[in-house]
């Protein structure tokens, strides 16, 4: 007993403290979760000792990559608490989810090593099997933790799944705690008839200081830590405005670092003179914002660019290849569709009648139409209108052959048009044109048709 | 796939047209009505063999075109895979978040042609990995189905590596396998372990080629048609397992890679490592096809100008589908051999000669009936005419001769055409068109040298500077030499001679050089046609005024010589005797087959039944409605006069009046309602038929009204 | 080692005692109290003062200032006591199956009790609904009643109990299997149930009919989440249960627990007519004074706590707390927010979790912290984590809402607004590419701060999808106030009344 206490004395006290676990483990844990100590200690105190009951369900929310998943995993595994960890995205049906949990339960028990196929269709069976599984192994005396990552998926499943998980402890009458991880606030989960309220815990986003610290933590072996952290500083300067996702930032950091230390490698600059380095990297990073960050250019291509350092201008991003080769009439169909979906019906007379006289825009301007249609997006139009416009914008006459009609359908399958409403209706199918203004202008140019003249918004 | 093609109207789910055609039935069908003296059997089989040749040819072409693309893809796969393996120690690799390597494969809007491409692709990928899954949007409405399909295909191709063409796999019983990504991963581990042990023990040829852990390739055939949700889920899920499972995605894209960003939110697309691959444009594809199929003397069968125009127009205006073009070509072949009894002679020259000898009398008569042959006969002197018209034997040998001529004509035609193209294709504004097919059409249409386009192009040719001219001549020489035609040897000689003369000029050339160069300068300054011609004219005058330099004289000679070649060899085909045998020229039939006008057809059928039924009683001017017309026609005509909503009662009234119009005098009131019942019944039947056709539908808006669905009175 | 051992042993004894076993004091004394009583008393002495001093400490600072000596003396005993206290209280707060204490519902208790008595003793069939909002102690009530019932000797052993839960038995087929399983009738092998729905139902009804009210054992059906059973296909199960509860020979009683007041309207007529309209309402209808009392009772350690003195100290501390001003305010808030016990439990649990060896008694500040932790606007939290660009978008949306009176908007409009802002204040942040902004917008969408009003069909362009903002302007402004290093003119822009349209 006394020995025990003396042990306690000559161990350095960690910030995290808990009677149930040896200080060494806690220290290790603390080292593993930078900038998340407070959350971890709170969780620890809530969990209590192994055998003690804890909240039936805990709901942890916070931004993408604010360390929810990571912290839970490290916490549970370092303290060797019996737990089941499931990602709900992978289990896209409730059946998969439940079976997954049961299988993990089997596997985490020592004596039943064979993971036999479990069959569990309903939550009723789940509760039964769960009880058995827990009985078979020595889990009664410990709290079992079931972590459901990406819990927002549960909203899409059957209505009873989420509430049932929330009160699993009561339903199974076992010492179990269900932990839900999600990016979405709890208010959006609560079913309208209400349910058992979980204890909600917020993981705050990393502050810029935190990001700096975490990102600088693992620097490349060949460079010094503060050199790297200076780099991180610049990186954050560019991207922090837009993106605080730790993962993305780390990715970007890794991608652009080689470029950053180029001058050093070439011996033009030493690690000190940060201005030079900054001058070198800054435009590069700005470029990266429009390319890599949006995945316009794949990261591997980006790396190649850096190695044989040509201008990123050479390699065009995905959105550079907007040009679509279309058959002649398809082009006109598309143009007609665009006009039909962005012009008010009553203006057709003015645009497409030969002798419409001089009608000013103000004449048929309505009061509520100060917002342009290009803000509101395309309006649906019937097939006949499309054809009518087509006939009037194509100078030589077009026979309504099957080819024309099939082109319309194929434009739909190409996502350049889209059908509105269900498409099995016999009378007047309605369409929308889903291409951007730039796109349609490019198309119109190829058949030298001045589309702007025909657009109501640009009168 | 075919339903979402640009030309779905034309090819509605033919299970396998080839098989149907070779069946004996059609062979008989060829000869139906006629007696077999017009050796339809033979024709049929000629047709067969010809088509098979052409088919092989086209597929070959397609493969060659795709080769480049496929090689790129294969190397990409290898690369991405290597990045999966090893070098996890490398710092950047540790820091970088693992992305799923993805190939965005832009194939162009002609969806029908993709099928073959994908087939080639999956065959090419076999060398890298046996694990390939092809997914179509219509099989994957939900993530569940997608996983099922995926696992089904993967599990299968783990057992047998070959034959990925047919998508109808026997599903590995899904209820036993939980279709989740996890089980895929497990499967992959087990399989790779197995293959490793295999490679240790007895190397299977396929798995020997693959690396230790080959990538798993998932091909999304039609990216556009997939729903966002499904793709999103799949990508997110698989990105969870990317470390255990070397997955590679291939997106088949018809429009433009932008679709990726418009389909996937950035949070998802940031899980991908996308690289772009362009298949090259279908227009080039078409021109190669035309070059290899039409502008060659390999195949005896030829397309007339109008027919070619129809096909090309369908291609350019409606669908960019090369496949359809070839189909159309096939249709032409079948049609030709079917309709033209003499097409039996449309084969390689040697066989043709043999066959001529064995022509039956009727066939000889057929020959005599040919308009081109008539013209030929008229050009002969009297006794020869008689001989031709009476003596089959003589006819036969003349035919042989003529056929030979025709053959020679073709050979020369092709090569000279190419030469001419060499000249015209580099001229500013392309007066005779840029593509050789345009030139071809022009030449087929009528005497090209009479068109003013030709004139202008010659004038422009006269302005060419020396170096260009020489290179062109060089090219021409090559073309002519390569051509099999032996009577072009003289031409070759001549051209070579020109070249040598140019060499000789080198010495004293330079002072004229600058003149011409200056003129060239002017040319380059003024690019648009009008100015160009003006400058041409004045330049010409200036030339007239001062004496021509040697170079210019030579240039004139060259151009004139080319001109002479053109006049000699590029005579339109239909001036040639017996061209009917090899040329298919009935465009109307083709048009009827290829661009159908359903609305018009229906309308004429119902509005003017005579046009189809050919019953004299129905003959009447379109305005009035004959009471003898089928009920549905009457009802239809009446409904044309109505608006969107049709009152059934009025309609019935009108109907009965029309029907009873004839026997009005002897109809008395007592019997009339008796008749009325029947008429009523007929009316109801007719209306229901219209409804069946989808012209009207019952409407909720008004009682005993029906809504009219037909296009507004067209 | 030994320390742990003693703790576990103590725990074990304690559990035994819960089972009402006798346990003599002297045999546990050496185990639980290894120290001379004087030392322990001393320990308690400074503990007391420490506890008192704790009140003024914020919990953030751990009382590591405590000298090692105290730790040494009080560590063992305290550690164990506290872990036991934690165990008891946690069980009370979190483990809801345990029949907790009841407050202010004696009348309902009596009612339910004699209802069940009549079933079990005199074999009368019956049916009743217990109706009350969530956390009002429906299950607790039932459990207590059953507990007492089971203790009565004439009941003991002859009562079949069938517990169903709407969350588990989502359709009648499952429910029926569950019933047969719990009654374990003949067609149950292991835990598998055989036979079709119809067979099982017929079998069950047969089994229930053939008995007679004197001899055969009464059956009690408990339907938790009763309202969910209503949605089953034409309410077959409910119909049959209520029917046999009226007609059958075997005494059958059906108890439904639900939180829906309008439950009777949900029943079909034929079902409703067979239901004896007994309803037991649980409104937690107690005033604040009682609430305080509940608070005390909930937090108090039971009399049979092994370490009497600690329990006593603990309880006195609780007593003090209940009189403390700040605590009362906290409780007041809680009380107004929601009266039900569950929230109270959650809240107390949170406070309790802070109790450690070095911090052995709950303090006012603990409770305060807990209440703070309990009442945080989660949306504001999320907004706090957004990037500047995303904040800007939200502000743009706010302006749009102001201009178009909360009409739905689409990305294009938001982008427009943002553009206007950028053009005016170009210097503060450089102009972002449209796709970059789109990415930010999608992130907002992913966080469900913005919601598409109609189900986004597959083919619509994303920039034209109509959206609604799920934050109100006050929330936004509050969030902006606390937002770290937010550019000044972004703040101004947010503040500016109407955007410049």
UniProtKB/TrEMBL annotation, chain A:
Sequence ranges assigned to domain Orc1-like AAA ATPase in this UniProt record: 33-179
Pfam families the record matches: AAA_16 (PF13191), ORC5_C (PF14630), ORC5_lid (PF21639)
GO molecular function: ATP binding; DNA replication origin binding
Keyword ATP-binding included in the entry's annotation: yes
Domain of life of the source: Eukaryota
Keywords on record: ATP-binding, DNA replication, Nucleotide-binding, Nucleus
Domain ORC5 lid: 228-295
Location relative to the cell: Nucleus
Transmembrane segments: none
GO CC terms: nuclear origin of replication recognition complex
Single GO BP term: DNA replication initiation
Domain Origin recognition complex subunit 5 C-terminal: 326-455
Assembly notes: Component of ORC, a complex composed of at least 6 subunits: ORC1, ORC2, ORC3, ORC4, ORC5 and ORC6. ORC is regulated in a cell-cycle dependent manner. It is sequentially assembled at the exit from anaphase of mitosis and disassembled as cells enter S phase.
Family (UniProt): Belongs to the ORC5 family.
Role of this protein: Component of the origin recognition complex (ORC) that binds origins of replication. DNA-binding is ATP-dependent. The specific DNA sequences that define origins of replication have not been identified yet. ORC is required to assemble the pre-replication complex necessary to initiate DNA replication.
Identification of the protein by name: Origin recognition complex subunit 5
Organism: Melopsittacus undulatus
Species lineage: Eukaryota, Metazoa, Chordata, Craniata, Vertebrata
From TrEMBL, chain B:
Residues in coiled coil: none
Main location: nucleus
Keywords assigned: DNA replication, DNA-binding, Nucleus, Phosphoprotein
Pfam family, one: ORC3_ins
Cellular compartments annotated: Nucleus
Gene Ontology annotations of biological process type: DNA replication initiation
UniProt-listed CDD domains: Orc3
Signal peptide positions on this chain: none
Origin recognition complex subunit 3 insertion domain location: 356-587
Ranges for domain Origin recognition complex subunit 3 N-terminal: 1-345
Keyword Phosphoprotein: yes
Cellular component terms (Gene Ontology): DNA replication preinitiation complex; nuclear origin of replication recognition complex; nuclear pre-replicative complex
Protein family (similarity comment): Belongs to the ORC3 family.
Described function: Component of the origin recognition complex (ORC) that binds origins of replication. DNA-binding is ATP-dependent. The specific DNA sequences that define origins of replication have not been identified yet. ORC is required to assemble the pre-replication complex necessary to initiate DNA replication. Binds histone H3 and H4 trimethylation marks H3K9me3, H3K27me3 and H4K20me3.
Subunit structure, interactors included: Component of ORC, a complex composed of at least 6 subunits: ORC1, ORC2, ORC3, ORC4, ORC5 and ORC6. ORC is regulated in a cell-cycle dependent manner. It is sequentially assembled at the exit from anaphase of mitosis and disassembled as cells enter S phase.
Protein name, as recorded: Origin recognition complex subunit 3
The organism of origin for this protein: Melopsittacus undulatus (Budgerigar)
Automatic annotation (TrEMBL), chain C:
InterPro entries membership: AAA+_ATPase, AAA_16, ORC4, ORC4_C, P-loop_NTPase
Domain of life: Eukaryota
Molecular function per GO: ATP binding; DNA replication origin binding
Pfam families: AAA_16, ORC4_C
Transmembrane segments: none
Keywords, alphabetical: ATP-binding, DNA replication, DNA-binding, Nucleotide-binding, Nucleus
Compartments where located: Nucleus
One Gene Ontology cellular component: nuclear origin of replication recognition complex
CDD domains (alphabetical): AAA
Biological processes annotated in GO: DNA replication initiation
Quaternary context: Component of ORC, a complex composed of at least 6 subunits: ORC1, ORC2, ORC3, ORC4, ORC5 and ORC6. ORC is regulated in a cell-cycle dependent manner. It is sequentially assembled at the exit from anaphase of mitosis and disassembled as cells enter S phase. Interacts with DBF4. Interacts with POLQ.
Assigned protein family: Belongs to the ORC4 family.
Job of this protein: Component of the origin recognition complex (ORC) that binds origins of replication.
Protein name: Origin recognition complex subunit 4
Organism: Melopsittacus undulatus
Organismal lineage: Eukaryota, Metazoa, Chordata, Craniata, Vertebrata
């Amino acid at each position: 007993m006394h020995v025990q206490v003396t042990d306690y004395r000559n161990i350095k006290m960690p910030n995290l403290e808990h009677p149930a676990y040896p200080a060494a483990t806690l220290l290790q844990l603390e080292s593993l979760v930078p900038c998340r100590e407070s959350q971890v200690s709170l969780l620890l105190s809530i969990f209590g000792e192994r055998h003690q009951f804890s909240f039936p369900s805990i709901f942890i929310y916070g931004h993408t990559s604010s360390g929810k998943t990571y912290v839970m995993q490290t916490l549970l595994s370092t303290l060797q608490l019996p737990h089941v960890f499931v990602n709900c995205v992978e289990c896209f049906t409730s059946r998969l989810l439940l079976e997954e949990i049961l299988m993990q339960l089997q596997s985490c028990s020592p004596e039943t090593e064979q993971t036999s196929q479990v069959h569990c269709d309903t939550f009723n069976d789940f509760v039964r099997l769960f009880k058995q599984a827990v009985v078979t192994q020595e889990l009664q005396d410990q709290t079992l933790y079931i972590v459901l990552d990406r819990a927002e998926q549960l909203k899409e499943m059957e209505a009873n799944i989420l509430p049932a998980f929330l009160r699993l402890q009561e339903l199974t009458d076992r010492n179990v705690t269900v932990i839900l991880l999600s990016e979405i606030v709890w208010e959006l989960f609560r079913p309208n008839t209400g349910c058992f309220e979980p204890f909600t815990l917020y993981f705050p986003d990393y502050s810029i200081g935190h990001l700096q610290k975490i990102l600088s933590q693992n620097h490349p072996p060949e460079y010094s830590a503060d050199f790297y952290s200076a780099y991180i500083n610049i990186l954050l300067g560019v991207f922090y405005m837009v993106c605080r996702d730790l993962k993305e930032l780390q990715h970007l950091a890794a991608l652009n670092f080689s470029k950053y230390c180029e001058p050093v490698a070439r011996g033009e600059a030493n690690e000190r003179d940060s201005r030079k380095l900054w001058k070198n990297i800054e435009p590069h990073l700005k470029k990266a914002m429009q390319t890599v960050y949006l995945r316009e250019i794949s990261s591997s291509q980006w790396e190649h660019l850096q190695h044989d350092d040509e201008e990123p201008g050479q390699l065009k991003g995905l959105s550079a290849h907007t040009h679509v080769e279309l058959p002649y009439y398809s082009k006109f169909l598309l143009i007609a569709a665009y006009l039909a979906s962005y012009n008010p019906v009553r203006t057709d007379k003015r645009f497409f009648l030969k002798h419409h006289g001089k009608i000013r825009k103000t004449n048929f301007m309505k009061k509520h139409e100060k917002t342009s249609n290009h803000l509101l997006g395309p309006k649906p139009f019937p097939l006949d209108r499309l054809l009518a416009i087509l006939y009037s914008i194509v100078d030589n006459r077009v026979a309504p052959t099957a080819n024309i009609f099939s082109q319309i359908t194929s434009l739909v399958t190409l996502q350049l048009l889209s059908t509105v409403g269900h498409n099995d209706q016999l009378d007047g199918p309605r369409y929308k044109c889903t291409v951007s203004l730039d796109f349609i202008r490019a198309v119109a140019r190829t058949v030298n048709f001045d589309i702007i003249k025909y657009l109501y918004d640009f009168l | 796939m075919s339903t979402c093609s640009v030309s779905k109207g034309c090819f509605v789910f033919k299970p396998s047209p080839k098989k149907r055609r070779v069946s004996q039935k059609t062979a008989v069908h060829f000869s139906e009505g006629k007696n077999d003296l017009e050796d339809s059997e033979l024709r049929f089989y000629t047709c067969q063999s010809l088509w098979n040749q052409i088919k092989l040819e086209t597929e070959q072409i397609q493969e060659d075109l795709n080769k480049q693309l496929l090689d790129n893809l294969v190397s990409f796969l290898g690369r991405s895979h290597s990045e999966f393996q090893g070098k996890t120690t490398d710092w950047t690799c540790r820091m970088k978040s693992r992305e799923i390597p993805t190939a965005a494969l832009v194939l162009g809007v002609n969806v029908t042609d993709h099928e073959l491409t994908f087939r080639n692709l999956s065959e090419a990928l076999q060398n890298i990995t046996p694990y390939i899954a092809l997914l179509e949007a219509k099989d994957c409405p939900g993530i569940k189905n997608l996983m099922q399909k995926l696992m089904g295909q993967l599990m299968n191709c783990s057992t047998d590596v070959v034959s990925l063409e047919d998508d109808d796999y026997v599903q590995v019983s899904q209820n036993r396998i939980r279709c989740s990504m996890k089980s895929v991963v497990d499967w992959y581990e087990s399989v790779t372990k197995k293959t490793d042990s295999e490679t240790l023990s007895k190397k299977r040829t396929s798995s020997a080629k693959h690396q230790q852990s080959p990538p798993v390739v998932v091909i999304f055939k039609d990216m556009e048609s997939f729903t966002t949700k499904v793709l999103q889920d799949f990508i997110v899920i698989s990105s969870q397992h990317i470390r255990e499972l070397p997955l590679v995605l291939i997106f088949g894209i018809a429009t433009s890679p932008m679709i990726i960003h418009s389909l996937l939110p950035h949070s998802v697309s940031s899980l991908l490592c996308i690289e772009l691959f362009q298949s090259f444009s279908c227009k080039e594809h078409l021109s190669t096809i035309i070059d290899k199929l039409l502008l060659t003397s390999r195949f005896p069968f030829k397309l007339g100008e109008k027919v070619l125009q129809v096909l090309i127009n369908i291609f350019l205006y409606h669908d960019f589908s090369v496949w359809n073009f070839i189909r159309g070509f096939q249709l032409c072949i079948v049609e030709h051999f079917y309709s033209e009894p003499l097409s039996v002679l449309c084969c390689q020259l040697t066989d043709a000669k043999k066959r001529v000898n064995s022509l039956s009398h009727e066939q000889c008569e057929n020959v005599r009936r040919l308009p081109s042959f008539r013209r030929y006969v008229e050009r002969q002197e009297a006794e020869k005419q008689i001989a031709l018209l009476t003596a089959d034997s003589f006819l036969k040998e003349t035919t042989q001769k003529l056929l030979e001529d025709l053959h020679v004509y073709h050979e020369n035609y092709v090569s000279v055409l190419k030469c001419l193209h060499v000249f015209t294709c580099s001229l500013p504004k392309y007066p005779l068109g840029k593509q050789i097919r345009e030139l071809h059409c022009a030449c087929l249409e009528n005497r090209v040298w009479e068109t003013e386009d030709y004139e202008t192009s010659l004038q422009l040719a006269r302005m060419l500077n020396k170096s260009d001219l020489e290179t062109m001549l060089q090219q021409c020489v090559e073309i002519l030499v390569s051509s099999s035609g032996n009577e072009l040897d003289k031409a070759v000689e001549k051209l070579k001679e020109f070249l040598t003369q140019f060499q000789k000029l080198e010495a004293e050339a330079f002072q004229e050089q600058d003149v011409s160069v200056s003129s060239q300068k002017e040319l380059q300054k003024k690019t648009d046609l009008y100015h160009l011609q003006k400058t041409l004219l004045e330049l010409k005058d200036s030339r007239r005024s001062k004496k021509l330099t040697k170079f210019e004289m030579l240039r004139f000679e060259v151009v004139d010589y080319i001109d002479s070649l053109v006049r000699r060899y590029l005579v339109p085909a239909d001036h040639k005797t017996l061209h009917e045998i090899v040329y298919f020229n009935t465009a109307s039939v083709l048009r009827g087959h290829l661009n159908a006008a359903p609305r018009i057809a229906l309308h004429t059928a119902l509005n003017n039944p005579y046009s189809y039924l050919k019953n004299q009683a129905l003959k009447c001017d379109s305005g009035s409605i004959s009471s003898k017309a089928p009920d549905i026609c009457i009802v239809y005509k009446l409904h044309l006069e109505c608006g969107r909503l049709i009152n059934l009662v009025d309609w019935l009234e009108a109907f009965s009046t029309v029907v009873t119009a004839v026997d009005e005098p002897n109809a008395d009131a007592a019997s009339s309602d008796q008749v009325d019942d029947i008429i009523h019944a007929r009316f109801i039947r007719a209306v229901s038929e219209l409804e069946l056709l989808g012209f009207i539908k019952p409407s909720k808006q008004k009682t005993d009204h029906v809504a009219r669905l037909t296009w507004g009175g067209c | 080692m030994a320390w742990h051992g003693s703790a576990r042993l103590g725990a074990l004894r304690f559990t035994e005692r819960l089972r009402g076993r006798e346990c003599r004091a002297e045999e546990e004394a050496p185990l639980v109290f290894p120290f001379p009583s004087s030392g322990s008393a001393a320990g308690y002495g400074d503990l007391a003062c420490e506890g008192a001093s704790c009140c003024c400490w914020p919990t953030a600072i751990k009382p590591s200032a405590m000298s090692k000596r105290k730790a040494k003396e009080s560590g063992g005993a305290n550690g164990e006591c506290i872990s036991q206290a934690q165990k008891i209280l946690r069980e009370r707060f979190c483990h809801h199956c345990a029949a907790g204490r009841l407050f202010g519902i004696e009348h309902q208790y009596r009612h339910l009790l004699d209802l069940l008595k009549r079933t079990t003793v005199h074999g009368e069939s019956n049916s009743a609904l217990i109706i009350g909002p969530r956390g009002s102690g429906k299950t607790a009530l039932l459990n207590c009643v059953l507990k007492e019932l089971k203790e009565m000797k004439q009941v003991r052993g002859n009562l079949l109990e069938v517990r169903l839960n709407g969350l588990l038995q989502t359709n009648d087929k499952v429910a029926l299997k569950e019933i047969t399983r719990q009654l374990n009738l003949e067609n149950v092998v292991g835990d598998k149930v055989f036979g079709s729905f119809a067979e099982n139902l017929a079998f069950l009804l047969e089994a229930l009919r053939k008995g007679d009210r004197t001899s055969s054992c009464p059956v009690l059906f408990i339907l938790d989440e009763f309202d969910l059973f209503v949605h089953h296909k034409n309410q077959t199960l409910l119909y049959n249960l209520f029917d046999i509860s009226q007609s059958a020979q075997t005494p059958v009683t059906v108890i439904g627990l639900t939180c829906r007041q309008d439950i009777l309207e949900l029943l079909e007529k034929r079902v409703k007519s067979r239901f004896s309209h007994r309803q037991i309402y649980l409104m937690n209808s107690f005033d604040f004074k009682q609430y305080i009392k509940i608070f005390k009772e909930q937090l108090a350690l039971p009399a049979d706590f092994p370490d009497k003195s600690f329990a006593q100290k603990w309880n006195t501390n609780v007593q003090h707390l209940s009189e403390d001003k700040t605590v009362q305010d906290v409780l007041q808030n809680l009380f107004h927010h929601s009266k039900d016990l569950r929230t109270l439990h959650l809240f107390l649990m949170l406070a309790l979790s802070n109790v450690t060896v070095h911090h052995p008694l709950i303090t006012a500040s603990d409770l305060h912290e807990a209440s703070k932790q309990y009442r945080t606007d989660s949306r504001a939290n999320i907004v706090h984590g957004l990037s500047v660009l995303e904040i800007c978008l939200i502000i743009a949306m706010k302006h749009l809402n102001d201009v178009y009176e909360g009409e739905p908007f689409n990305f294009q409009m938001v982008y427009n607004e943002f553009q206007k802002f950028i053009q005016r204040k170009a210097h503060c942040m450089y102009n972002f590419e449209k796709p970059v902004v789109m990415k930010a917008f999608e992130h907002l969408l992913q966080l469900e701060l913005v919601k598409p009003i109609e189900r986004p069909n597959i083919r619509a362009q994303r920039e034209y999808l109509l959206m609604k903002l799920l934050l109100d302007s006050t929330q936004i402004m509050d969030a902006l106030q606390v937002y770290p290093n937010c550019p000044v003119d972004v703040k101004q822009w947010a503040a500016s009344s109407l955007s410049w349209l």
